[in-house]
Write a structure and sequence with these properties.
By secondary structure, the chain is α+β, with helices and mostly antiparallel strands. It is built from 32 helices and 30 strands. Strands 1, 2, 3, 4, 20, 21, 28, 29 and 30 form a 9-stranded antiparallel beta sheet that branches. Strands 5, 6, 13, 14, 15, 16, 17, 18 and 19 form a 9-stranded antiparallel beta sheet that branches. Strands 12-7-24-23 form a 4-stranded mixed beta sheet.
Length: about 1000
Amino acid sequence: MSIGEWAIRKRITTLTMIVVLLAGGLVAYQSMGRLEDPEFTIKDAIVVTAYPGATAEEVAEEVTDRLESSIQQLAQLKDVTSVSLPGKSIITVKIKEGYNKETLPQVWDELRRKVGDVQGMLPLGAHPSVVIDDFGDVYGILYSVTADGYSYKELQDYVTYLRKELLVIQDVAKVKVWGEQREAVFIEMPRAKLRQLGVTTQSIVGALKQRNLVSDAGNVQVGREYIRISPSGGITSVDALGDIYVTDAGSGKLVYLRDLATITRGYIEPSTNIMRQNGTRGLAVGISLASGGNIVDLGKRVTARLAELDAETPVGFQIKPIYFQPDYVTKAVEGFAVSLLEAVGIVVVILMIFMGLRSGLLIGTVLLITVCGSFIFMKMMDIQLQRISLGALIIALGMLVDNAIVVTEGMLVRIQQGEDKIAAARAVVSQNMWPLFGATVVAVMAFAAIGLSSDVTGEYCGSLFWVLLISLMLSWVTALTATPLLCEMFLHKKEGAEAADPYGSFLFRAYRGSLRACLNHRWVTIGALLTVMVASGYAMQYVDQMFFPASTQPQFFVDIWKPEGADISSVSDDLRKFEQKLATDERVEFTSTFIGAGAPRFMLVYAPEQSYPNYGQLIVTIKDYHDVPAMIKEYREYASKAFPEAFFKFKKVRLGPGRDDPVEVRFSGPNPEVLRELSRKAQAIFRANDNARGIRDNWRQKAKVIVPVLNEQAVRRAGLDRPDVAKALQAAYVGAAVGVYREGDTLLPIMLRPPKEERTEVGSMSSVQVFSRVSNSMIPLGQLVSEFKTEFQNNVLHKRNRKLTITVSCEAREGLPIGLFNELRPLIESMPLPAGYSMEWGGEYEDSTDAQAGLFGTIPSTVVMMILITIALFNSLREPLIIWLTVPLAIIGVAWGLLVSGQPFGFMALLGFLSLMGMLIKNAIVLLDEINLQIREGKEPFTAVLDASVSRVRPVMMAASTTVLGMLPLLADAFFVSMAVTIMAGLTFATVLTLVVVPTLYVILFKIREKVA
């Protein structure tokens, strides 16, 4: 008993399975997790080490190099990059592909051990290294909190309260506050008064420590109790600091601190981070989703909790979303769901046109069963509803009906010829079961390369393979079970059908006549097809190329880099003018400003910039994403005129992995000056190209540094050294931490510094007082230095795999980056490099190369599997040879489809091209199986080739039509449009040609000729 016959005879069981798949699929769909983009693992960790007072060169040599040397011992390491700044080392550790969120924690533990091993080798004065392994956390719900009319302290206190309330919400993993300023207590003392009274900073530090030190006073036994002793006298308020007395070195008298200095409470300046919403100072609050949670459900909970807290929120406080991922996810999922329904409707209409109302609805029902059943297995495999998984279902729709079409077509013809329905089911299912299985597996294997790729792009697009695997294999099962039963229930023999020829219509007769001519002129046919194929291959060089397209999200970014050494306040001032300009633009919804560093990672494809005082970013949210290109062009011109000394970069939101600079070239070598010279030459080449803009390197400018040249003899005579002088200068212009003020669970540093007018007076540097322990007195700095000079030093030094590396980048004014890259590549590669220096390309070229390497690394094994399956199906070599000779036909439609539509051949188009292989092979398998079957039944070979080809026209054309037209909704999606065009154009041409080429190659390889009567 065949499966088809069993399904009919056990109809209650089969109908129950159908109901379970339909109902279970609807339930699974409602409960599935939802995301805007699929998850992929950020395999980066950051190691931060502070080395106060050191230059960038000293940080690179004494800290960064030693840490990198230990980190490179990690077997899991892909590469290590670093940036050395004055006083700070930042090392980015990137792990090899193949590790995921389950295995990475163990890698980070090993990284911590490697970093810990080298701590004893770091120079004196370097702080312990900190490993940050949550760099990839995504804060998909990002709010701004502003408080008009309130102090910053009140704003900060409210956000602290808000954070505690948000942390208790179900599925909240972390709540991050961005833009907080560090509060401190300031003791401002004029230098003149210090000199007049002879009070030293050491005496103030000693007094603060004695008064505010936590000390153990012991315990005393009282009867049967043992009571702890705790003396009073600690500092209980900022005003109480004024009651501390210090010793006057001249008279030995005790002097109250309030008589010597002004004591205030405030915030450390300059600010490290500044955040504004629509130009108003605020704080950003980011919320990340716990693993396994649903971002849409979390959004509802957060919104509900904020509504509850609204009654407790003071008037004037505003909580506004900067980025609310649940809304984007809901919109994206609903949009794709509509596209899915549209595609289903298109497929059903096509089926009804080709096969009639009854057969079309029958196959449409099987399609609905398969889609719903796919949701059940997607839920079981924890595949969430997002851009890729829903797009995969739309791509699969046309192929999902292929198996059902073959079974329905076979049973329909047999039933119309008067055969018993159960016998027809038995014969059709037995005949097609294994050919359809092999063809389905081959179609799935065409997508296996992306599912098995360990590259980050493979991880991003991996659900494409798994969804197609689930849905296509389920379609094979439903074709062998549900389809025969539904055919038995709803297909009936028409009266007078015995005399009707199912292939007697004009289209069938026209195809038969054309095919006979092609078979009789086989070499002319093959020659013509080869000519068209070669021409199409040549045309492919005129197709643009790119990695991933830009998003249609109504946002864009504006990055600003002021010259090295610029104060954060100057960046803030420039961006405030920019904000005011944007505020007058009716196209703008709101602006969010982040100064000093990038925003928290609020979407997976957003890479926040590290902390730099001369950096800022505007996130501009607009009403209509169609305005993004025009607005970027308009505001780029405004920025270049209004802020000529700053570098601006305008960026669209990306789709998929990648980086901000599409064209990058890296130079590596030992000497910073030689690298800067190579950078200048490369930038000159870039500037000579009229299509290049945004030209820069990542070392940026050298920064001005004031260098007091110490008189070594005078310094030694005073019993001083370089750190003593450095600390005195820091205290004079920044302030020195001299204690800690305790307020509940808050610890505030106590900073001793001169008044603001003295801190900004560079000309009085020679009068800065340095305390000498030898003479127990203050010595003016002018007596310890021979001169003050200004030098230009490297403020930023980048390394890649322990080699100093400078990266030069640019972008294209018009067109795609690959065009500009191709123009610049020969000029850059012809640059002479000194011995010991190397050059390599980065940017989109490197990303695309890595992604294709990961993809092509798995292609050979999948192709071998596909070849073995075709050989096993036919137990022959000639049929598989025919099948694989048809695969190159796909290039014909692909080339002209992309050229006419203007779509680039990017990564998604490459996936579409690979999927075409499976579709073409599947069609060829079904056709060849029918030819062999008719020959085995005794039909004359030439006639069998003709009859079999004619009998497969309708299934093959229907399968192609449903696949091609079912993808129409994807043409409106920026991410999938190039893949859709590739499949639609390639399959349209290749299907028509397959119906000619497969029979032609068959008669050539099997040496079949038409018998002349």
